[in-house]
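INFO  loader      accepted 1 record
INFO  loader      residues=371
INFO  predictor   begin
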Amino acid sequence: MSAMSRVRADACPGVFATHDAADGPLARVRLPGGVVPAAQLRALAACAEDFGDGDVHLTSRGNVQLRGVRLAGLAGRLAEAGLLPAPAHERVRNVLASPLSGIHGGVADVRGLAAELDRELCARPALAELPGRFLFAFDDGRGDIAGEGADVCWRAVTPSSGAVLLAGLDSGLAVSRAEAVSALVTVAEAFARVRGPAWRIGELDDPSVVLPDGPRAAPEVRSCRVDPTVGRIGQAVGVAPRFGLVTAAQLRVLAEFGDAVVTPWRSVLLPGGAEVERLHEAGLSTDPATAEITACIGAPGCAKSLADVRADARTVTPRGARVHVSGCARRCGRPSGAHHDVVAEGGGYRVDGQWTPASGLADALARKVLA
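INFO  predictor   done
INFO  writer      dumping tokens
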């Protein structure tokens, strides 16, 4: 969408500005870098029970959502838990970081950079005016987060230096790891000054206007890949909640194993490891195939949805290919990488553009995967 077409206010939900869904107000809680200490997992579980529908929903930006929020007091409870450190900035604390960094693979260790950026972001009043869709990112060099299309991203090239990406593309600007946070904040401040009606850096006529002055090399194209975040990964263990939905009871089980990292692929990584049997007893899958199928909330949770997409998606069991099922053409929550696109339409679905009745969805996708 171009900046010229932005004719309404930014309605990206938060805690104070919720989204009115068919199943009640939706509140989004930002988790910079996806990092959630065990105490905050327990706090989110209590908030889901006391203020929402009892579940926590993972998002494609490594954040969480509470649905059906109907009682006052949520913001205060989240603040007490440290999940709302700067109320004025709560909708702009969108920060991704390579979840496996420092655990498995990667060129540089980017752990801690998201928290550092979050502190700098919250300390600058002007940045509270950034659009709620603006996205910061730190990629440890493997290319998992670089492929998520962040507005501004630092991607490691060596253990101590990296490239600054704008809207997913190398800008030619290189900075050290020590300067990465400062560089991203500088870009965000420049965007806040010049953005006009734009919500994303990619909507500017010339995105390079947000870069600081200085020498720049020729941009490079580097590959992107997403390494598995589900199952056993060295010492760590990753779980894939079905459709990114985690019950309050499951959150408490996750908290038994220490801090967690919510990934942009709706999985939860336990860096310190976990007893897989205990996770399975709680209904938490460690099978990577569980994460291959995602879906929007669908009907009856969303009034715009043309189908109960999650019920239909439960009939689908393809392996080795990503699938996203949407209740309407908005395609909420779809992954940024390659996937089979399934969209509800009048009694059936369009699967990669080809119509099929709802009863034939599983077979249609099976044929796509085998093709």
